[in-house]
Amino acid sequence: MAGGGFADAGTLKRAHLYESKITGFFIFSCIVGALGGSLFGYDLGVSGGVTSMDDFLIEFFPQVYERKHAHLAETDYCKYDDQLLTLFTSSLYFAALVSTFGASSLTKNKGRKASILVGSVSFFIGAVLNAAAKNIATLIIGRILLGVGIGFGNQAVPLYLSEMAPAKIRGAVNQLFQLTTCLGILIANLVNYGTERLHPWGWRLSLGLATVPATLMFIGGYLCPETPNSLVEQGRIEEGRIVLEKIRGTPNVDAEFDDLLEASREAKSIKNPFQNLLLRKNRPQLIIGALAIPAFQQLTGNNSILFYAPVIFQTLGFGSGAALYSSVITSVALVLATLISMAFVDKFGRRAFFLEAGAEMIFCMIATALVLAFAFGKGKQLSFGVGLFLVIVIFIFVLAYGRSWGPLGWLVPSELFPLEIRSSAQSVVVCVNMIFTALVAQFFLVSLCHLKYGIFLLFGFLIFLMSCFVYYLLPETKQVPIEEIYLLFERHWFWKKVVAAESGTPL
C-alpha cells in the first residue's frame, strides 16, 4: 500500500490487557513535568522581540540600528542582515545540540528528573547573565548557558511525558510540551510588547524574566515522580511498579509492567546504545525519528517566523509597536493550534495532521511569496490592506504548523524508540533539531536579504517534500503502546523489507 501503514493497538502483543484511569496524581505529574517546554518557548519568543528593540541594538549592534532607520531601497530585505546579531540567537542552539549528549547519559543513568533539574539551573544562570550583560561576550556566554538548559530540558521532557502517559492519550499528553512551549512564546511576546516602552532597560527585563520559567521547571522537576520506565531501567523495580500503579490508578498493571521488565532486560544487554541505533532493526526509527522529523520541523520555516516575527514585520514596513503586536497574534495562533491538536491527535492520528496541515502551509508560503513579489520592495512600505492580508496568511500558516509539525515533531520521535536506546535516540533527536534550528536562526536573515521573497517559495517546496515523506514512510502510531511501536515497522509496506533482514545486521 502507498500509505504509511496502520496498526490497531488491539492487534499487538499485550496492549489489549493494559488498564488505566486518569488520576489526579497523573495529571499533576504531567502538567508540572511539561513546564520544561516553557523554557524553549519563552526564549523563542523573547529573542526575536529583543533583537528588534532600538535600545538593545544601540547598546550592542549600533550598525544594525543605523541600517534599520536608513530607509534605503537596498535595505528592504536586508535591514537586519548581521551575522553577529544572528549569532546572539543561534549560539543558544549550538550549545543545546552539544549539551544534549551529556543529558543523554544523565537521563539514562540518573533518570529524567535529573536532566530536568540540571537544565533549569543552567537556564536560570544564563537568564541572569543576559539581563545583566554589558558587552557582547557576556551576552553570548549567557546564551550558551540558556542553550545547555534547553538541551537538557528538551532531551528529558518529551521522554518523561511519553513514558508517563497511557497509550490511548499519549499524543495529547506529550503535546503538553508543545502547549507550554507555545504559551512561553505568547507570554514572551506580551512581555516584549510591554517592555519595548521601557527605555532604555526594557530589553533587560525581557531577558531577565526567563528566570521565572526556569524556577517553575526546577520546582516541578523536584516535585514530580520519576517515570516507571526509568525506575525499572535503573534497577528500582518495586519502586517502578508502585509509581506505575499510582499513575494508572489501578493495581492491575501486570501486562504493562511485564513489557517494561522485558524492555529493561533487553536494555541491559546493550553496551553501546548509540552504536545500537545503527542496527538494521532500528533503521526505520533512526531515519524517521532521529534524523528526518527533527530536521523537517525546522525546515518548515515556522521557527524563522517565531525567531524574527517582529524583525520580519518591521522589515515589511510595520512600525515597532505594530510589529510586536503582530507577533503576539502569531503566538495566539500557536496556542490555539496546540489545543486543537491535543484534542484530536489521538482520534484522527499523526499522519492526518501532518498531511492536512502541510497542504495549508504550502499554500501560505506561496501566497506570502506572491504578495512580496508584487507589492513590496524598492523602498516602499506595504499598504494597510496588503499588510493585513500578510498577517492573516502568516496566522493561518502558524495555525497549521501548530497542530502538525510543531507538536508532532516532538511527539513522534519520543514514541518510536525501544527503551534500550530511547535516551540515546532522544539525544540525537534534540541534536539534529538544534543543528537545524541554529542553522535556520543563523542564516534566515541573510537568506531573506539575498533570496528575498524566494525564501518562502523554498520553504513551500521543502514542506511538499516532507509531506511526501510522511505519506509514504511514516506508520500511524496513535494509541499503540510505546513498548510495542516496533511492531508497526515489521508490518509496514516498506520498512518490513528493511527490518526483515537478520536482526542486528549493521547498517
Written overview of the protein:
- With 507 residues, the chain is mostly helical.
- 75% of the residues lie in helices and 0% in strands.
- The chain is built from 25 helices and no strands.
- α1 (24-33) packs antiparallel against α7 (136-164), α2 (36-50) packs antiparallel against α7 (136-164) and α16 (283-299) runs parallel beside α22.
- Mean pLDDT is 82; it is low at 1-12 and 503-507.
Protein traits:
507 residues, mainly alpha, 25 helices, 75% helix, 0% strand, globular, disordered N terminus
Poorly predicted segments:
1-12, 503-507
As a whole number of angstroms, the C-alpha radius of gyration is 23 Å
Portion in helices: over 70%
Structural class: mainly alpha
Strand-and-helix sequence, N→C?
HHHHHHHHHHHHHHHHHHHHHHHHH
Give the percentage of residues in beta strands.
Answer: under 5%
Number of helices: 25
Mind summarizing the main beta sheet?
none
Choose one word for the global shape.
globular
Number of strands: 0
User: What's the rounded overall pLDDT mean?
Assistant: 82
Termini separation comes to: 26 Å
